[in-house]
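Why do we care about 3D structure at all? Because function follows from shape, and shape follows, mostly, from sequence. That is the central idea of this module. The next example makes it concrete: a single protein chain, its amino acid sequence, and then its structure expressed as tokens.
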Amino acid sequence: MGHDWEDRVTAAWAAFDDYAEEDAAAFRAVIDALVAELPGNSPLGPFERACAFDSTGHPAEAVALYREALDGGLEKVSPYRARRARIQLASSLRNIGRAEEGVALLTPELDAPSDELDDAVRACLALCLSSLGRDREGLALVLGALARHLPRYQRSMAAYARELVKPDAR
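And the structure:
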């Protein structure tokens, strides 16, 4: 789609916080109207709809749509959106009690080319790990991500993060 469509999607999401909780269906209708403009086989449609369901408290509905977007070639259309879809899908899976699937989905993302979503990958993966009772691993991920942003103590925090997951660190 063109810049006009992208601009209107961006504007819709920018207005999301203006919707009251009881207006969730109205927001999803805005997204549905934008999706209706896309070719029927565009993976952008299920991705945007998944985001709308997810953001309005319907993670179970979002899961199938994220998978449809990814299976439909979202990676080819927008690698950035595909990475977002994997992060958000993992979060939705965790929210519906399937955190193991979220861990399996996000673990390979730790080795993906670096971008601005790296910390979101680690944060969501940490939540999935925590849901599985693997708090030390989750804390290590979060500390490691945080360390890069600290004005001081980066080396110490990174070392503490590594110590948390050493086999004898219990």
